[in-house]
Amino acid sequence: MESLGRTIVGRSREQRELAAFVTDAGGGALVVRGETGVGKSLLLDHVADVADRANHRVLRATGVEAESDLPFAGLHQFLYPLLPYIDRLDEAHRAVLDVVFGRGAAKPPSVMTLAIAVLDLLALAASPQPLLLVLDDGQWLDAASAEVCGFAGRRLTGSSVRLVVGLRSDIPSRFDTAALPELLLPSLSRPDSELLLTACHPDIPPRLRRVVLDEAEGNPLALLELPPFLTEERAGHDGRDPFGHQNVPLPHRLQHVYGNRIRSLDDAVRTELLRGALDGVAAGRSAGRHLSGTRYRMKDADDAVLSGLLEIDPFTGDFVFRHPLVRSTVVQLATPNERRAAHAALARVHREDIERHATHLAASTVDPDEQVAAELEAAAESVIRRGGALAAVAWLTRAAELSEDHEGRSRRLGDAAFIAGQAALLDQAQALVRSDVVPGLHNSPASVIASTYMALYQDGDVRFSRRRLVAAIEGIRDGVMTGTDEMLSRLVNLLLAICQYASDPAAWREARALLDSLGGSVPQRSLIYRDAWSDVVRHGAGVHERVEGSLAELRGLEPWDVTRLGVAAYHVDALGQYRPHLQRTVDREVETGATSSAITMVHLIMLDQIAVGDWDEAERSGERALELATVHDHVLFAHHSRAYLALVAALRGRLERARELQSVVDAWARPRGVGFLTQIADAVGTTAALSEGDYETAYLYAIGITTPGSFEPYAHQASRTLLDLVESAVHTGRVEQARRHALAAREAGLPGISPRLALITHGALAMTAEDDEEEAAMYERAEAAGAASLFPFETARIRLAHGIRIRHAQGPKAAREALSRAAEAFQQLGAVAWSARARAELRAAGFAERASSSRLPSLTWQEHRIADLAASGLTNKEIGERMHLSPRTVSSHLYRVFPKLGITSRAALRDALGKVSRDGSI
Questions:
Q1: Strand 27-34 relative to strand 57-62: parallel, antiparallel, unpaired?
Q2: What is the SS3 assignment for 107?
């Protein structure tokens, strides 16, 4: 395909579709996909012209292979012209976009957070006139930018913004899974090929004409470029391949054509072309002006223009490559020494840009150079903050290669291996530490860490791995093994993680003694992990405040520090306030960063969703974690995900699925001694049995976790299943054991550790109270714990037990409020069996459901929480901040709530909800 005047040959259908895409009402996104040279860029020029004539503002960007590993590089191109609008956004969205433009030092946002900010920016920019975004060579866009563009593109329908993306079909792209509409560009038909060939090469001899048509196979670029290459003599008269090689893909044949032209240039021009190619100078006349940031400007390259290798951008006057294939061919033809010299020159050009400077510096240096190694190390630290763990591994590996002494090399390889392990690149982590070979030293700290990650994540080995870590820590302590403070910290934190998974009292006691022997060498955060991860009953006092203090400044934390502190927050039931940060961070880490940490982040998000009653979302999070763990061969995390999915299924009464998952987890974890997962499996058994009213089985599972009247040391589920053990004991006539266990919880100080433990301790004391006065007092304390909205399932169970007791003690009427509130909560949660049990108790209390009572059950748990908050006077924005939702989502929920409650305004919410509560409607 080529333009003849204002006519594009053979693309009338595609032109009509693209024109309709621009001029039809409403926004949207479209991918234009085709092979190399099929004419995607020309059609993108065409759609930009159509939009310009229709009074659209057109913004263009081009994917650059040299920048495909730099986070947000592509998005920076697109949004740079919109900088003036950013200051008109609200503070939250402005802070998010400041990260992209390097104007802020905050942690990189998640894909969803950034995409929402981008959508708001685009909507603002499109308010004066419609906006068209044109992206060429989208296959080279960096991962973070591609994810944001895909997310935003799926949400442009009905707006004044349109996005069109050009992709090569022969190269995998991050847009392949973006689910955007596509326009496929086939090769030109034979008649159209003949028309284009005649128009561009009217004097071509007939025999050569046939050869060109056959070789080009309808590819417009080949029809333009082959005739000057194929002379009559080259075409031959015996039908042989004019290129001298059969069955070679067309792009490679075109590179052969371009290669001959490049070789004909003098050295100075070829040097300019090589520098431009290695720095990602644009291809195509309309692309160069859209690349933001400093870019090498080729000079004195007019001969390359005459040879059809370069063009002059009419807007900037700069040389640009005629086609991306020219750019790649230039690099392929250069010798290693030529490439290194070009990279050295480019490193000087980008001396103010730490990441680009490092990229070129690394490629230009051959011999060890400590200064270059230090600059690469600094660049790795910078790119980690921008979500680029994969780039950091590459730069640290190169820094190690350029280190002038073994100590520097070993430290940098250890850092690279550690980040590779966090990024789920376990094989690469192992390979990195194996490359750090020292005669007589086979177990360096880095090798111990890498091999432990492999053994733990892929096989759940908590026994031998723990012994290796203990030996390595003792070796550093005693001076037998060399290790930095950072390496010691990594060893300690990994040991604590393994002890948590093992949940073995002897292992924990040994670990605590070992940390004590290290004295002041143990970081304060590691001490928080030790106390929170081990046994909150014995060591949890004050942990809540210590976690809050460490998480007060999230911006300065690496992703693995955030997840470790998040796990600590979970153990003291303080996770909810940090979930928004986890949700902002997790998508970025999944794509380009610390994948292992990201999976844990998803687990933490899921746990908080379980706690607050968002069980649909929790199940989706669990499935996502399971998929990630499976893809990255994290067998341990896969079973961890199954354990949490089993728990959700048990809570919802999906007992077959719960027990199937429980069985799989238990069969894998118990032989390996992964006590953390076997305890969750037992908790699933307890929950499932309680759900179906099998209290005997529930009790047997519960005492498998801890003995009544005590809390098994270093068993994380011992305190979490307090209510399960007490309730099942009460229902099976084991009143004395139930009472002893509730009193043990109070004596252990559980109410002072977390709001949830305060709630269930007082609830357990109410269930086992020896007289009605004590029962009422303990119930009031449970309600006063302030945890009802944070832990609705536990609260509903306590209310149900209270209602049953006072129905027998004070009569049906007194019990209705507590029973109604319990039944309402169970139904909104989706706890089907518990809801049925509460309704049965209501019927026993003489309650008859009325037709009007059907209104409230139709509210989901989330809708009811939003309605409650709105009735209390909070704005949509304030509700969104509490529930981690956008104000628009809150508004949508309220729009559905009003007709369910039979009201038409926000002002009527309080009365409607209050009437429901007074009437006992459920």
A1: unpaired
A2: coil
- Please tell me the distance from the alpha carbon of residue 635 to that of residue 17, in angstroms, as a whole number: 47
In this prediction, residues 695-717 reach a mean pLDDT of 95
- Angle CA 758–759–762, to nearest 5: 80
Q: What is the pLDDT of residues 226-275, one digit of tens each?
A: 787 665 445 444 444 554 444 446 667 777 888 888 999 999 999 999 99
With a cut of 50, say whether residue 921 has pLDDT above it: no
Residue found by looking up tokens 């994810």 in the block: 147
Alpha-carbon distance of 114 to 123, in angstroms, equals 14
Residue 58, C-beta contacts closer than 8 angstroms, at least 6 positions apart: 48, 51, 52, 132, 134
The pTM score is 0.61
| Residue 56 confidence (pLDDT) | 92
**Cα separation of 394 and 384, whole Å?**
12
Edge-first strand listing for the sheet containing 157-168:
57-62, 131-136, 157-168, 27-34, 182-184
The residue count of the chain comes to: 922
Give the number of C-alpha atoms closer than 13 A to the C-alpha of residue 126, restricted to the C-beta side: 22
Helix (H, G, I), strand (E, B) or coil at 155: coil
- Phi and psi at 403, nearest 5°, equal -65, 145
Average pLDDT over residues 462-477: 91
Per-residue exposure over 163-182, b if at least 16 CB sit within 10 Å of its own CB, e if not: bbbbbbeeeebbbeebebee
Helices and strands (H, E) in the chain, number of each type: 48, 9
- Which residue type occupies 524? Q
Give the count of beta carbons closer than 10 Å to the beta carbon of residue 353.
Answer: 17
Question: b/e string for 562-581 if b means 16 or more Cβ within 10 A?
Answer: bbbbbbbbbbbbbbbebbbb
Give per-residue pLDDT as tens, 96-155: 787 666 666 555 566 677 888 888 899 888 888 999 999 988 888 888 788 889 888 888
- Taking all residues of the chain, what is their mean pLDDT, rounded to a whole number? 84
> What does each C-alpha distance from 776 to 262, 779, 807 come to in angstroms?
90, 5, 13
Contacts of 382 (CB under 8 A, 6+ apart): 354, 355
CA 365 – CA 154 distance, rounded (Å): 44
Give the residue among 684, 725, 693 at the shortest CA–CA distance from 840. Answer: 693
| Secondary structure (3-state) at 234 | helix
pLDDT at 758: 94
Cα(109)–Cα(593) distance, rounded to whole angstroms? 12
**Range in 176-190, 432-446, 597-611 with the lowest mean pLDDT:** 432-446
Terminal CA-CA length for the chain: 67
Determine the pLDDT at residue 94: 81
Beta-carbon count within 10 A of 183 CB? 18
Contact 447, 436 (CB under 8 A): yes
Residue 698 DSSP symbol: H
Reading the block at residue 346, the tokens are 């480019």
Which residue, 200, 326, 359, is CA-closest to 255? Answer: 326
| pLDDT grade for 163, boundaries at 50, 70 and 90 | very high
Residue 670 three-state SS:
helix
743 confidence band (pLDDT: 50, 70, 90): very high
* DSSP strands (E only) in 514-651: none
CB contact at 8 A, 909 and 867: yes
Residue given tokens 């921008």 in the structure block: 386
Candidates 515, 483, 503; CA nearest to 418 is 483
- 646 torsion bin: left (phi>0), alpha (psi -120 to 50), beta (else): alpha
pLDDT at 556: 65
pLDDT at 107: 59
- Scanning 386-522, the segments in alpha helix (DSSP H) are 389-401, 406-422, 426-434, 445-459, 464-477, 485-502, 505-518
